[in-house]
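Working notes for the structural subgroup meeting. M.R. asked for a predicted model of this chain before we commit to crystallization trials. I am recording the input and output together here so anyone reviewing the notebook later can reproduce the run.

Input as submitted:
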Amino acid sequence: MPHWSGVQRPTDAPRCFHFSFFSLAFFYCMMTRRAIPVVSELPLKETLQRCLSKGSTDAFSSLSPPSSLSLLFTRGVCACLFVAALFYGCFAFLRSFVLVRTFFSLGSLPSGDRVRDQLMIAEKAMPHWAEFVQKCPVLFVILFLVALTRLADGQVVDPVLSRSLYTDDVAVVDLSGTKWESIHPSAPFCPWLVVFYNDGCGHCRAIAPIYRELAAGLDSAPEDDVLRMVTAAAVNCAVQLSTCREKKINYVPKFFLFMPSNCAAGAKGSCDAGKMKEFVIRSSIKALGLFRLEVQGIIKENMHVDGSMMQRCVGMRRSLQAEKRARRGGESSSTDPFVETRQLYATDIAGAFFLTMWNEVSLVGLDSPGPLGAVKCFLRIVEAALPGLGADALLEAVAEIENGTRFSVESWQEAVLAARIPYYGAPNEVQWRTCKGSSPSYRGFPCGMWLLYHSITVNVDAGGDTSPLEAIQEYVRYFFSCEECRQHFLEFNFTRDGDPVLQLWRAHNNVNARLAPVKEGADPLVPKRQFPDAEICGTCRNSLGAFDESEVAVFLRKWYEWDLSAVSTSTDESGNPSYFFRPGRPMPLYKDPKQRHRDGVRYDPVPLHVFLTVFVTVAVLNAGIFRTRRRSVRSLLHQHCRQKI
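Returned structure, recorded in token form:
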């Protein structure tokens, strides 16, 4: 038997293994910007304010279990553990190096006393708490995994508050992701009724009060009604593009019922968490009674319901509503009086163009010939009519896709940012002037699109090969996500012979006349009216009060005449320039197109499964190397002991 009294066993292998684990974990945290709350383009003060603000966006924006303080705490834990592991690993590496040098770098095999002396020197160089770390490595590993898992399930975008039509309604849960298991422990076991919508869609705004009524009535449903189990939720596709593309949302509003996949009707026992089954609700929510009946029927046919399950799902919904109520109570609302702007600002036209490229094209994609041809024709019309909006740069991106480059949301949105469209605001916070409503849920994008269309018809060459109204209708056919609005617009019979300016003007006034009596989704302080009124065009009506179309045409051509300089020189109420950036001016915040901190759009460069694959590979290699080396050392020691004997 080998004699070990003079030589300490080589115990540095676990230390180096732990160091490798901590190093890889920290590398993953840093690569995904989850370990330390730093936003490189923003001042530290603003970064901390965002991290500690009420409106943090986690896996589910309005209601996610990890709060901002919790995220900050777990980030701090990660950082502290890394520092500890770094010191510990450095000394472990030093000790390992001394051991390897002692055994393999010297010309002859040293005596046991010399090995012991070298190891004692390395041991004394280590801090006292290193022995505790060595004896309790499992504790450090568990703490680090808890912190890392909490971050991976929590913050996936930078802390900003996502806009929503249902911000002020506690009965509707605002979702900003598809990780149902993250929002509440009971989430995978309960049915979810989710509306996918676009906050710029007029029809989505119109049905919002009906959906609020449905959500508010869930608590008052009879005890034996399966609707009591349902949680009403909403996803804004203008913000959550990846989620809506994953669900193949090609029009809005669209209603889904999500339920656990392994909880069949008639089954005994409780449900198990699993992949959620999806059911599209076909009934119109305007017929609320039929809508409820369809939801009830789907639940009864596909899910086992008992008293404990009912109580569990009701408790989850009330818990989420209470959390949203608490968050909403901490928000402040503006009390400034609203004054409608009757002047046309070119930044609103640019803002509408930016949003339709950023949101609508990204949602639909350019993977098939129809949408690709429609967006190409539309961009050519915009380039000809409204130079300086960046359509030429986007045409280059379209050409690359035509030449075989695969379309992706990330690359397209980078191209939209690189086009330097001179809008006012930020990607998820476009600011409106002419189209500003009395509330963020009014006007905005639909109004801006009308301004864009009118400006195209006024400024494009009417004698061109492509009719501007045909190009606009084809673009609307593929990229206007509001289903009802799209169908109404496609019903217009535009002709090549008529004046496109007057044809679009008549169509717009017809829409205003149809929507004037509608109260749902309409701005109460900006009523629908016939344009232009006497206040801005006194000569546009004759003595009988009817429109004089010849005068109207003159007015419209002057009103919508494109002047790019107005985009880069106009100022807001405070005298500040009303642009996100001027043409030729470096873009603020977006030095790197992939760093989209301001609008909360960010794509993690290292997914969790990649990190785990790398970690397992390195761990196996380390284990093999240390096992081989330990056998070699034992063999040498055994030979040495036998020689002494």
